[in-house]
What we know:
The protein is mainly alpha-helical. The protein has one domain (5-109). It has helices at 20-34, 59-73, 80-83, 92-109; strands at residues 5-9, 44-48. Strands 1-2 form a two-stranded parallel ribbon. The termini are far apart.
Amino acid sequence: MAKREVIIFDSLRQKRNLAIKFAMTNAFRSFKALSGQSRGSKLTWHLGQCPQQLGGRECGYYVMRYMYEILEHHRSSEDLIQDFSRTTPYTEEEINEIREIWAEYFICNVEL
Length: 112
């Protein structure tokens, strides 16, 4: 939380009104107040580079792939904006890989 940055990964690259900004800002302020930090510094919002989807139906797989890549390959990154510089779409193989990873996770960890 040292940098106080929020990075937006948008696989459709569209101008959006991010309703989550208000909630994130309030959560950040509450966190600071509860941890005894003074007021003053704000969150900085960045639009990060990320693979761009070709259609309008793959967004869930793209979000799952971003989460996987951040946790698997970039969890100790000092600069996610630099680390995520790819804009080419994920291949069918990469989408299938994330489907298999999440399916295996749910089969092994979720009680039905």
